Amino acid sequence: QVQLVESGGELVQAGASLRLSCAASGLSFSTYVMGWFRQAPGKEREFVAAISGRGRTMNSADSVQGRSTISRDNMKNTVTLQMNSLNPDDTAVYYCTAALQLTPTLPSSMSRYRYWGQGTQVTVSS
Hints:
single chain
């Protein structure tokens, strides 16, 4: 049984930094692209960042580029999203997700991701 468990979300002030973590179990971790999506109230879930199975390739959404870093530890089966200079627009539930790496291109579409965590709430106050 695959489990993805996120942690690290909290209420912070604008300008702060947060480190979100996701612990994975029940899958061959290094063969999966790991990603982060987020969903703000009343909005569709959107892509944030992804990292390849071996951690050699990353990509991120324009909205967080330059403010975020995704990384993974294949020994510990964890993936981390470091976000800096947070603003109220970053307020959302953040989801960890996993997709089999079928191509060199990292997917940014929800439909490509097979497994999802329950999410962790990030709230940024102005």
